[in-house]
């Protein structure tokens, strides 16, 4: 995690320097007028890199130790931890992606599709959340 944190701080410095260079270059090229879209987007990319680096630093300090990925003497099996519970047989994430796709298609093609997509999103979210409360896996 230390390498990731350092990488994002390096990206922050790079994007801030690139933002300054872009702003100066646009002022020179456009005769004193700043090109705001590129200036703001590159600056926000740098700020987002700083947010991620800060978050990773806080997480690393709150864990109170070094991750196995950061130790030179660590084995591969040292990083085998419980990552969560995932359902390899579940179709709900695929159906949810399809429903969200309908919503985005509605925004692009016609707004009448958005309510239909939102209805599918609601059904698939409920199905995904409650899939362990019915059938063979019900509690």
UniProtKB/TrEMBL annotation:
<dbReference type="GO" id="GO:0005886">
    <property type="term" value="C:plasma membrane"/>
</dbReference>
<dbReference type="GO" id="GO:0022900">
    <property type="term" value="P:electron transport chain"/>
</dbReference>
<feature type="transmembrane region" description="Helical">
    <location>
        <begin position="36"/>
        <end position="56"/>
    </location>
</feature>
<comment type="similarity">
    <text>Belongs to the cytochrome c oxidase bacterial subunit CtaF family.</text>
</comment>
<feature type="transmembrane region" description="Helical">
    <location>
        <begin position="89"/>
        <end position="107"/>
    </location>
</feature>
<dbReference type="Pfam" id="PF12270">
    <property type="entry name" value="Cyt_c_ox_IV"/>
</dbReference>
<keyword id="KW-0812">Transmembrane</keyword>
<protein>
    <recommendedName>
        <fullName>Cytochrome c oxidase polypeptide 4</fullName>
        <ecNumber>7.1.1.9</ecNumber>
    </recommendedName>
</protein>
<comment type="subunit">
    <text>Associates with subunits I, II and III to form cytochrome c oxidase.</text>
</comment>
<dbReference type="InterPro" id="IPR021050">
    <property type="entry name" value="Cyt_c_oxidase_su4_actinobac"/>
</dbReference>
<comment type="function">
    <text>Part of cytochrome c oxidase, its function is unknown.</text>
</comment>
<feature type="transmembrane region" description="Helical">
    <location>
        <begin position="7"/>
        <end position="30"/>
    </location>
</feature>
<dbReference type="GO" id="GO:0004129">
    <property type="term" value="F:cytochrome-c oxidase activity"/>
</dbReference>
<keyword id="KW-1133">Transmembrane helix</keyword>
<keyword id="KW-0472">Membrane</keyword>
<keyword id="KW-1003">Cell membrane</keyword>
<keyword id="KW-1278">Translocase</keyword>
<feature type="transmembrane region" description="Helical">
    <location>
        <begin position="113"/>
        <end position="133"/>
    </location>
</feature>
């Amino acid at each position: 995690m230390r390498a990731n944190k350092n990488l994002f701080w390096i990206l922050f410095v790079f994007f801030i320097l690139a933002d300054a260079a872009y702003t100066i270059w646009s002022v020179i090229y456009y005769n004193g007028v700043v090109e705001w879209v590129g200036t703001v987007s590159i600056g926000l990319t740098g700020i987002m890199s700083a947010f991620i680096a800060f978050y990773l630093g806080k997480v690393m300090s709150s864990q109170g130790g070094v991750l196995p990925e950061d130790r030179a003497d660590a084995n591969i099996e040292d990083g085998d931890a419980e990552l969560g519970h995932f359902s390899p047989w579940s179709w709900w994430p695929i159906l949810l992606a399809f429903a969200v796709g309908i919503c985005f298609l509605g925004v692009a093609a016609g707004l009448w599709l958005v309510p239909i997509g939102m209805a599918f999103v609601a059904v698939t979210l409920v199905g995904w959340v409650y899939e362990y409360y019915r059938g063979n896996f019900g509690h």
